[in-house]
Every structure is written in structure tokens, then in C-alpha cells.
Amino acid sequence: MKIGQLDLGDKPVLLAPMEDVTDVPFRNLCKRYGADLMYTEFVSADAIVREIDSSMRKLEIMPHERPVGVQIYGREIEPMVEAARIVEAANPDIIDINFGCPVKKIAGKGAGAGMLRDIPKMIEMTRQIVRAVEHTPVTVKTRLGWDENTKFIVDTAERLQDVGISALTIHGRTRAQMYTGEADWTLIGEVKRNPRMTIPIIGNGDITSAQRAAECFDRYGVDAIMVGRAAIGSPWIFEEIKHYLTTGCEMPPVGIREHTERLKQQLDDTFRWIADERRAILHIRRHLAVSFKGLPDFRQLKIRLLRADTISDVCACLDEIAERYGNDICKQ
């Protein structure tokens, strides 16, 4: 699959942009386990234009993690175009437009998935961004529609292609669904089978196992799949998927002892990246919270783990988990 001149090979597996998740340390992990293309946390166009330090830092890309895309969101065309120009100067491999984020603070203000209520504005914004960015492919990530009555993705996909995007990622839910229910891939497949579509179509939503990834490639014919929430706490899912796609066999499961060591390394990387112990711990708690599903009699130890407020305390809890459950396996 190619996005512009970027060749990602056959059946690539992508890491989705996720706020407070896809920072440099986490991308390092996902890259290590085989992610073919990754995205930064999504960034506000207004914050980029205003050069807010915390947002500008999200544009930083390390050479060893490429290819990496930067995703931007906003509700007004002019600042989105200006932000795209600024982002291009940071030299990402791709600039992605977020027309899919469903959270109220973004979609409720007309950005992200909120743009699905104004398709003409979405198309015009995309057109102007593509024209403004000369050397970087522009892609879009969106949803099936705003709600059950506005699933216009087949037509919307054609219109986005017509204004020059290089690839389209579709999450198989409406904005109204948020992240509830099951992702509906039937319309993703319909977009891919549309003879008018020539750009790559990337499917997203509920890719939680290697078998499901293979099924989505085979049944819906997508050019790539994108993994989001399933990578939190289980970044090795990329390795599992690629192994299964290549061999048809599952990889041996990851053990608790091995995973605790990986989490300690991630915590260390996060601390070195953020240079603030408290913020590093807060940042990794999202990963810790979902890392040890199904362990018996784990509640009190989990509470201690998530309340630990120093790196040494977190590591001590992880060592205790490894000692107590070292022969168990991680469950997704």
C-alpha cells in the first residue's frame, strides 16, 4: 500500500492517533513490535497557530520511529490551513485531518466528528489544506456518519478523494455511538469496493486480535487496518497480527513477568521524555490500568499500583505482580 510516495508494503498495520497515549515513548514500543505507520496524539490547529508549547511538542518526531503522521483538528478552515503549513515545516511523513473524534469537547464544538454535520465545510476544508500543503500527503480519518440516519460515508469518501486526499481511514461507528456497540465494517467494505475509489482505504474499529485483523483484510478488502485502544497495555498486538498474517498461526502469549519488565521500561522512557516523575506516572497509569486483566485476587494490588506516586513504588508493585503471577499470561 502506498500513501503518496510512502510505501508501507502489503497489509500494513497502523497505530491510531490517541490523545494522552501515542506519545514518543509509546510509539517507540509500538514501532519495536512492528507498527508500520504511527500517528502522534491529535493536535489542535488553534494551539499550533498560537504556538502553545505543549502542543508544539507533540509535533516532535524521532528519526527511528518513522514513518509518522501528525493529526490535526479544528472547526474553522483558516486556522486549519495555517496549522497544516506549520505542521509540514516539522517534516512529518503524513498530515492527517481528524474528522472522527467523537468526544463532546471537540465534536460538540464542530471539530472532529462534529464536521460530519457539515459535509460541505468538511470537503472545502480538506480541499484548502491539500492545496496549502505541497510536499506532504494529506489523509483523513472519519466515521460512518453523525448518527444512524446520516451514514453518508460512501458519498463522502468519493468527495474527499476528489479534492485530493491520499488515503482515507474509516472508523466503523457513527459519532452518536461514541465507542459503544460493535464497529460496523460493512460500509467500510462498501467504500473499498466502490469502483470510483482509487486511494487506499484503511479500516478501524474493534481490531482486538490477530484473527480479527486477518478477517477484516479478507472479508472487507481494506488496504490497511488501524489499531487503537487494543494497543493500550498490549503494544505487542502489532507483532501478533503480522505474525498471524504471515504464518496463519498465533504467537505464544506474553507472560506476566515479561510484561512487567516491559512496563518498567516504558515508565523509564516516559520519565526521560517528560522529565517529571509525577507526570510520567500519571501518563502511564492508563496503560497500567488495563495491563493485568483476569488475574485472580488482584483488586488490592491493582489499587496499590494505580495509587503509587513514585517510580520506585510503581516498580515495586510490578515486581510483586511478577513474583505472584509470573506463570500467568496477559489477556487482552
Task: Write structural notes for this entry.
The protein is of the alpha/beta class. It has helices spanning 24-32, 45-49, 53-57, 77-89, 104-107, 119-132, 153-162, 186-193, 210-220, 237-247, 256-274, 277-289, 299-307, 311-325; strands at residues 2-3, 6-7, 13-15, 38-39, 43-44, 68-73, 94-99, 138-143, 167-171, 201-204, 224-227. The protein has two domains: 2-247, Aldolase class I (TIM Barrel, Alpha-Beta Barrel); 256-325. Strands 3, 4, 5, 6, 7, 8, 9, 10 and 11 form a nine-stranded parallel β-sheet that branches. The chain has a two-stranded antiparallel ribbon with strand order 1-2. Helix 4 (77-89) packs parallel to helix 6 and helix 11 packs antiparallel against helix 14 (311-325).
Supply database-style keywords.
332 residues, alpha/beta, TIM Barrel, 2 domains, nine-stranded parallel sheet, two-stranded antiparallel ribbon, 11 strands
Which runs of at least 5 residues are low in confidence (pLDDT < 50)?
A: none
Pattern of helices and strands? EEEHEEHHEHEHHEHEHEHEHHHHH
Number of helices: 14
Q: SS-based structural class?
A: alpha/beta
In whole angstroms, the N-to-C terminal distance is: 28 Å
Main β-sheet, in a few words? 9 strands, parallel
CATH class of the largest domain equals Alpha Beta
CATH superfamily grouping of the largest domain: Aldolase class I
Tell me the Rg in angstroms. Answer: 20 Å
> Please, how many domains?
2
Mean pLDDT: 94
What's the β-strand tally?
11
- The CATH architecture of the largest domain can be given as Alpha-Beta Barrel
Helix content: 40-55%
> In CATH terms, what is the fold-level topology of the largest domain?
TIM Barrel
Inertia-based shape: globular
Classify the beta-strand content into a percent band: 5-15%
